[in-house]
Automatic annotation (TrEMBL):
Lipid metabolism is among the record's keywords: no
Source organism per UniProt: Anaerofilum hominis
UniProt subcellular location: Cell membrane
An annotated GO BP: response to antibiotic
Entry annotated with the keyword Membrane: yes
Pfam families per record: MatE (PF01554)
Membrane topology classification: Multi-pass membrane protein
Name recorded for this polypeptide: Multidrug export protein MepA
Amino acid sequence: MDAAERQDAKYKQMIETPIPKLVCTLAVPTIISMLVTSIYNMADTFFVGKIGTSATGAVGVVFSLMAIFQAVGFTIGIGSGNLVSRLLGSRRRDEAEHVACTGFYTAFAAGVVLMVLGLIFIDPLMRVLGATETILPYARAYARYILLGAPFITSSFVLNNLLRFQGSAMYAMVGITAGGVLNIALDPIFIFGFGLETAGAAIATVLSQIVSFSILLFQCWRGGNIRMDPRKVRLKWEIYHEVLRGGLPSFYRQVLASIATICLNLAAGPFGDAAIAAMSIVSRVMMFAQSALIGFGQGFQPVCGFNYGAGRYDRVRKAFWFCVKVASVGLLLIAVAGECFAPQVIGLFRKGDLAVTEIGTLALRLQCIFFPLMGWTICLNMLQQNIGKSKAASILSSARQGLFFLPLILTLPRFFGVLGVQLSQPFSDLCTFVLSVPMGIALLRELREKDLLSRAQQRKDEG
């Protein structure tokens, strides 16, 4: 089957397959991909936790640096992917190829720039990210190798998203999963076998990312509708404008997540390395749980893009409500489990450290209270982003870790001590949900009106 035939088959699948079946078919590989992506850092936190509390805190500090890499990759990847899915839905394949190739090579170049700047300013960078004097040596050793992998990390996110938005989520899953499994296998070898400690964790992560990158690139050539041909790159403002328009909500979300992590480390710092380590563990655990939700929502994104581009607004609405219902139920079950087994979860990472367990257990339980509300907010944000509502999507994506969390983390600890650190994220989640409700109602009403107009025009054309 040549590329044109593959694209015709994919188009038919995306606009004709029943919504529950289509979303689930695309969601299962993306859920696995997101969970495995979280495992990269979960594995490092688990094995580095065997070294000591300061080493565990170092992984949390460098996590905000990796969030910057992710911000660049997600911005370009989701911006490119959104546009590619709409172009493919409108049957404009040549334009889709130019967008995809331009996004991929731009992300790799951006990763090179981040690598060079980070290595030059590594010590002041670690201090800005929240490293204490005891954490700094571990953070420096970990970050040095992570920075070397920056070009592969940023461009891997683009490849992953491009495959997903073309409806080839299974191919994306293979590349991500292979890297995650390899990382779990290499961590104990480099950390304990070679005695490299935190540097070993970073080396294992970077090697795994490079393998994942290589597989994803191969999958684009083998299974994607679009191949990463450098001759298709077009350095045009029109392309970058549309990519940034679709990707900026992800940029705001990821950068604010990085800033939020820095502020969290700084706010927890006065309460000791145990507080930084505990909040780092809770952040990783919640990110792991959220990744399942985000992966499920990402099964909705190509469905949304294709059908919106094809004028099938009814299918966009049906897919949205299906995702909200399933996600909310799933998050409720996860939240209940988190409330019941919080001490055991924290103990997996720092068993025997009573201070870390005590702080982390309460923080995890507090965050689980409002966790089910994220089913609505994340699915709504994906809908806004995929249909080109960049302004609304940017506001909502900035709310959780920026508009609400930053003021809370900067003020609550002053009045409530370490409890203020623990309360900041759950209060932010509640405020974000309250903001998102009227935004969602207005957008769904607009989609319904578009659907009615489309049906009326179709009846007119047929008559």
